[in-house]
DNA sequence: GCGACAG
DNA sequence: ATCTTGTCGC
C-alpha cells in the first residue's frame, strides 16, 4: 500500500489537506511584497526609451550581478524521484558561477494550484545550503520555474495582465494567486520572478509566449526588465540552465 | 454536476 | 514533469 505521489491524477489527497494548503497560502500571502524591494539596481539596458535615464547618481548602490534559477526534473522509471537544481549566473558573462543539485523522493503529488507544496521544500534546502556554503555568490534575484501572482487559483488575473492595467492590477494582486515563485520568495525572503511556460490557457496563436509574473519583492515592470536581460532563447537562461543541468545530473547518477 | 488548471 | 524523430530556422 504505497502511495503514488507522481501522477497528475492526484491519488489520495484529502480535502482537509487541501484546506490546510489554502490556509498556508493565504497566510504567506500576507507577507508578500509586490514592489521593488532590493538593495541593488538594474543594469543599464541597451535600447531603452524615455525613462531609461533615471538617477544614475547612486554610485553607492551595487548593480545586479547574480541571478539564480531553479528547476526540477523527473526520473523516467520512477516518477517519484526528482532532481532539484539551483544555478546562479553572472549577468555580465551569462556564465554559470554556481550549481547544486539534490535528488529526492517526492512525498506530495502534483496538485494544480499547489505546486509549491511539492517543490518548494527542496528548493529552500538548496538555497539555505548555499547561504552557508558560498554566500558570496548567493543570488540577488531568483527566477522560478512556475508562476507567481499569475496562478491557477486566480484566473481573472491574466485578463488584467493582458490589458496592461498595471497600476490597477496592483490592487488586485494582493487578493489574487500565490504560486511557487511567491511561496519560495516569501519563505526564503528573496526577490523572485515567476516564469511560466504554459499558463492555464492553450496558446492557439503561432507564437509560444512565456508568462512572467511577480514572485516576491520585484515589481512586474522590473521583472520584465530582468528577464529581458536574458533574451537569447525563449526560456531565460537561468531557468534554462537549471533545467539542462538538472537533467544532466540525473543521467550521471540514477538511470535517466 | 461538469468545466481550463503552473510542474 | 515524462514518453518521442526529424526538421525548420538563425
TrEMBL record:
GO terms for molecular function: RNA endonuclease activity producing 5'-phosphomonoesters, hydrolytic mechanism; single-stranded RNA binding. The gene is LOC105164960. This is Endonuclease V isoform X4. It is found in: Cytoplasm. It holds the Pfam family Endonuclease_5. Keywords: Cytoplasm, Endonuclease, Hydrolase, Nuclease. CDD domains: Endonuclease_V. GO terms for biological process: DNA repair. The keyword Cytoplasm applies. One of its GO terms (cellular component) is nucleolus. It comes from Sesamum indicum.
Amino acid at each position: 500500500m504505497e502511495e503514488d505521489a507522481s501522477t497528475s491524477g492526484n491519488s489520495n489527497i484529502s480535502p482537509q489537506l487541501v484546506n490546510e494548503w489554502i490556509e498556508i497560502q493565504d497566510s504567506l500571502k500576507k507577507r508578500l511584497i509586490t514592489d521593488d524591494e532590493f538593495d541593488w539596481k538594474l543594469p543599464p539596458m541597451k535600447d531603452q526609451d524615455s525613462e531609461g535615464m533615471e538617477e544614475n547618481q547612486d554610485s553607492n548602490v551595487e548593480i545586479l550581478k547574480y541571478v539564480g534559477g531553479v528547476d526540477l526534473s523527473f526520473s523516467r522509471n520512477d516518477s517519484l524521484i526528482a532532481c532539484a537544481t539551483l544555478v546562479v549566473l553572472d549577468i555580465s558573462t551569462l556564465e554559470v558561477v554556481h550549481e547544486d543539485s539534490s535528488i529526492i523522493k517526492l512525498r506530495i503529488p502534483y496538485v494544480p494550484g499547489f505546486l509549491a507544496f511539492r517543490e518548494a521544500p527542496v528548493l529552500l534546502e538548496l538555497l539555505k545550503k548555499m547561504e552557508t556554503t558560498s554566500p558570496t555568490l548567493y543570488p540577488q534575484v531568483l527566477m522560478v520555474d512556475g508562476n507567481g501572482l499569475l496562478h491557477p487559483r486566480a484566473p481573472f488575473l491574466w485578463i488584467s495582465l493582458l490589458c496592461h492595467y498595471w497600476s490597477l492590477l496592483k490592487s488586485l494582486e494582493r487578493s489574487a494567486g500565490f504560486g511557487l515563485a511567491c511561496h519560495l520568495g516569501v519563505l526564503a525572503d528573496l526577490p523572485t520572478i515567476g516564469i511560466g511556460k504554459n499558463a492555464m490557457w492553450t496558446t492557439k496563436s503561432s507564437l509560444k509566449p512565456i508568462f512572467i509574473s511577480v514572485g516576491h519583492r520585484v515589481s512586474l515592470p522590473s521583472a520584465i526588465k530582468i528577464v529581458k536581460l536574458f533574451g537569447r532563447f525563449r526560456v531565460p537562461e537561468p531557468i534554462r540552465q537549471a533545467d539542462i543541468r538538472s537533467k544532466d545530473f540525473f543521467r550521471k547518477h540514477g538511470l535517466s
